[in-house]
Amino acid sequence: MTAGAQPLRTPEPAAPADPASAVLAVERVSHSFGSRKALDDVSFAIPAGRFTVLLGLNGAGKTTLFSLITRLYNTRQGTIRVFGFDMRLQPSQALARIGVVFQQPTLDPDLTVLQNLRYHGGLHGLPASMVEERAAEELERIGLAPRAKDRVRTLSGGQRRRVEIARALLHRPSLLLLDEPTVGLDVALRRQVLDHVHDLCRERGLAVLWATHLMDEARPEDGVVVLHGGRVLAAGRLPEVCARAGAPALEPAFAALTGGGRG
Amino acid sequence: MSPALYARCLRAVIVREGLRFVHQRERFFAALVRPLVWLAIFAVGFRAVLGLSIIPPYETYILYEEYVVPGLVGMIQLFNGMQSSLSMVYDREMGSMKTLLVSPLPRWYLLLCKLLAGVLVSIAQAYVFIAVAAFWDFRPPPMGYLAVLPALVLSGLMLGALGLLLSSFIKQLENFAGVMNFVIFPMFFASSALYPLWRIREGSPWLAVVAGVNPFTHVVELIRFALYLQIQPVSLLVVAGALAVFLGAAILAYDPGRGFWARRGGPAEQG
């Protein structure tokens, strides 16, 4: 397995290489905290309707990348574009097209489901009538319409996650970002949330970036970006990534690409 | 972006802050009990110790209770400003600060919305306290109740902006206790809230200088004069100036390019 230990020499993703038509285009992004380099020359692109798994162990740089894509802080090296809008130059246009589900729960537990959704709608400047309409629609879809007036505190972990996803969709984004959204959920709920987002991706043509360290969350039709030690080791459709690593499945492919270590 | 978007955002933040306030009734009573303890117990005991001469804006001899009310109103606002930034620290840990910051509206505007919502809550508390203080014979001219409103808005914003700025330096809740000790207590005691400046000068000239430049002294004096339908120009300038400085610094601190998040690696760098 000597070949696998070194990073691939071709940084360009095999599948949609054209960043101009991509919903999300990350181009040569690097980021450091002091002397620690969290991201090193990261590039990849996601087209509409594609579910892309950002695969990396803890400390690979996934959260840093999410913070840059959501502009919690600025990209200092490289460019991030959402629908062609440069995150640094046109942050409002870019952010308006992104829906985010953060790793930590961000619903207010003392407020009701509907109050949380209204708050989010307001932050995005949506008119109240539109928020009511869409909130009802999204809650109906996830089967939580009867719980709309219940406090979030009374919901289960899986229900809260689905509410957070519904909330992220209220302003009809083109790109949905989810940072380790299945943390703390049991196997059945994990499957449920994963299915739900795959459906959304297919039905609405959403571009999805799903960060995880769990290999089994990637499906054959998904795109995969392998992030390790702040670098992109491979990007493309799952079968292509496996083929290039010379492995039968994602798990051995990941081990081959990363040299088995934690980097 | 249209003004309607901005208005909806502001409304959403105020509604949320209001709902949280309603859900945390203990917070409201705690905020009310604190100054009442000072008024009902401390002020009564202290009255015998401290002699007050006639100083503006008062035109006759007054009881100590009457003197101390504006200081205690300032105290409500001081605690509120720090508390709303405490909730920022808390929010940040809970991740809901992120929800606010990924809104497409400019970040300075989002912070201002948050600040305004906090000020509205503190003004409600201040008015309830002033009303209750009538039982201790605190009765300013009727128009004073209205005249104090702009003073409360300005001083509430200033103290809230200070809290916001401090929250950008604090990463954890535990550190906040230190800020309470190092910011709230010195600001409160080294001011004209409990004793007039000339009294402080008798005891310690340098402390009087400190109190003279302490923005909280000017918050208290602005409120005191406004309650008696007067404007204290120096205090007005100091409070407005401090607001500009603290708000500017807080917006810089939360700026995605320069801010502390970019330098320190975010609120929770989990990889």
From TrEMBL, chain A:
Task: List the InterPro entries.
Answer: AAA+_ATPase, ABC_transporter-like_ATP-bd, ABC_transporter-like_CS, ABC_transprt_ATP-bd_su_PQQ, P-loop_NTPase
Q: Which UniProt keywords apply?
A: ATP-binding, Nucleotide-binding
Q: Which GO terms describe its molecular function?
A: ATP binding
User: Which superkingdom is the protein from?
Assistant: Bacteria
Q: Which Pfam families match?
A: ABC_tran
Q: Keyword ATP-binding on this protein? A: yes
Q: State whether keyword Oxidoreductase applies.
A: no
Q: Gene3D superfamilies from the xrefs? A: P-loop containing nucleotide triphosphate hydrolases (3.40.50.300)
Transmembrane residues, as ranges? none
Domain annotation ABC transporter: ranges: 24-254
Q: What SUPFAM superfamilies is this protein classified in?
A: P-loop containing nucleoside triphosphate hydrolases
The molecule here is called ATP-binding cassette domain-containing protein
Species this chain originates from: Azospirillum oleiclasticum
TrEMBL record, chain B:
Enumerate the transmembrane spans: 36-55, 67-90, 111-136, 142-166, 178-198, 234-254
Q: Which InterPro entries match?
A: ABC2_TM, ABC2_TM_bact-type, ABC_2_transport, Alc_ABC_transptr_permease, Nod_factor_ABC_transporter
Short name of any one Pfam family annotated for the protein: ABC2_membrane
Membrane topology reported for the UniProt record: Multi-pass membrane protein
Where is this gene product found? Cell inner membrane; Membrane
The main location is membrane
Highest taxon, organism lineage: Bacteria
Which keywords accompany this UniProt record? Cell membrane, Membrane, Transmembrane, Transmembrane helix, Transport
Domain ABC transmembrane type-2 residues, every copy = 26-257
Q: Does the keyword Transport apply?
A: yes
Q: Which residues form a coiled coil?
A: none
Give the protein family.
Answer: Belongs to the ABC-2 integral membrane protein family.
* PANTHER family in UniProt: NODULATION PROTEIN J
Name the record gives this protein? Transport permease protein
Annotated organism of origin: Azospirillum oleiclasticum
